[in-house]
Write a structure and sequence with these properties.
A hairpin with a 3-residue loop joins strand 2 and strand 3. This protein has one domain (11-162): Ribosomal Protein S5, domain 2. It has a 5-stranded mixed beta sheet, with helices on both faces. The protein contains 6 helices and 5 strands; from the N terminus they run H-E-H-E-E-H-H-E-H-E-H. By secondary structure, it is an alpha/beta fold. The longest helix has 20 residues, at 143-162.
Length: 163
Amino acid sequence: MSNKTVEPTNKVSNLLNKKIETNCKLIKLHYKKDFAKIYKNGKAQLTADFLALYIKNTQTVASSRQLQNKLLQNELNKSDLLNFYSQAASFAVVVSKKVSKKAVIRNRIKRRTAEAVKQNSALFPPQIQIIFLPKLSVLDAEFSNLVKQIQIIFNKITNRINF
């Protein structure tokens, strides 16, 4: 027998480690209630290629160090994960069938938008939940232009939230 320490290879713990390493910046929205809340109460920011609906999350963000300690001690439970996802800054990209009937095109638009958001992760406003609704023009636009538009959106949202 070997004296190896067995670390949990749980998918949840691996996912949480990745999120903690990135300072809880880029978590994707998953829950229907989050989408409904943003669509109902959210504010809009428009650029040439995007409509961004956003809302400030009023709950306090759980400390990533606390989550990391719970993960190391195997004390992480489902409610901690739900709090982590509901409190952190998060985003989603929604492309409707009105933009394109073809799933291949819709998925490409989603990938381009998500990558532009990831490249601007340092500017991502804290405790904000954003839904990006890209237009078909995202498909043909230069990627650097998309990145600049996402920067503009983040800056405007940050300015609105701070006032």
